[in-house]
Amino acid sequence: MKKAIAGAGFAALALGGCSGLDSVIASPQLTPINNPATIAGSQRVSMPLPAPEMEAQAPNSLWRTGARSFFNDQRASKIGDILTVNIEIQDSAQLNNSTARTRTSSTADGIQALLGLEGVIQNVLPGTPSLDPAIGFDSSSASNGQGSVNRQETVSLTIAAVITDRLANGNLVIGGSQEVKINNELRELLISGVIRPEDVASDNTIAHTKIAEARISYGGRGDLSQVQRDRYGKLIYDQVAPF
């Protein structure tokens, strides 16, 4: 009976291990095409809005306010329209901090007469005891600290995003994703945020610096990312290790 239970347990562990190994050995799969609105968030974007303004009507005019073309405005402006986002990130930061602190203190307290008992104490104790100083403290501390940060990042990417919502003041909520698979390495780019229609250029592009509440994520899954990622045992040890 014990052998049967042990065999069943070993088989269950083997099956669980095989299923875990399949996810590691198999190449990463592309994500199915989903609704871009889920990238920007399942909840509607709520932001402070200005008071509504009435736009003057010009029924006999061929020109439309905000149009970049005389006949038609080719820029994305409606839910479901596509526009291109140019991501050019060049960030650099350098910080150098140095601190030094030294402190020395000394305290001495004495009892001169002790209610006339000083003579009695000197007669009882051998030698020539004195009550001055009776209590003394000496302490000293010193600390030095140095820290430096040198960071430099450069990202140059282009991605097409979809307008998922239009706010009451005319601003647009966008969301987009892009996946590229080369051999067994999958690179994924996600972007979402809020833009103004006026910031969309005539070629239907917008810079990432003009996106409010921008969320840009770029990462990968596959053989290279798996090698660079720490093992589960090390991650658990880092969490429970006291030092």
Description:
Among the domains are: 37-42 and 68-93 and 155-240, no CATH class; 96-147, no CATH class. The chain is of the alpha+beta class and 243 residues long. It has a six-stranded mixed β-sheet. It has helices spanning 2-25, 37-40, 118-124, 223-228, 232-240; strands spanning 82-109, 135-166, 172-182, 185-195, 205-207, 212-222. The protein is built from five helices and six strands. It is 21% helix and 40% strand.
What's the short story on this structure?
The protein contains 5 helices and 6 strands, in the order ααβαβββββαα.
Could you list some keywords that capture this structure?
243 residues, alpha+beta, six-stranded mixed beta sheet, 6 strands
- DSSP summary, beta strand count: 6
Name the strands of the widest sheet in spatial order.
Answer: 5-1-2-3-4-6
Kindly state the percentage of residues in helix.
10-25%
Proportion of β residues?
Answer: 35-45%
Mean pLDDT: 77
Spans of at least 5 consecutive residues with low confidence: none
Q: What is the ordering of alpha helices and beta strands?
A: HHEHEEEEEHH
Q: Which structural class do you get from the secondary structure elements?
A: alpha+beta
Backbone shape: elongated
Separate helix tally: 5
Biggest sheet descriptor: 6 strands, mixed
Q: Roughly how many Å apart are the termini? A: 46 Å
Rg result? 36 Å
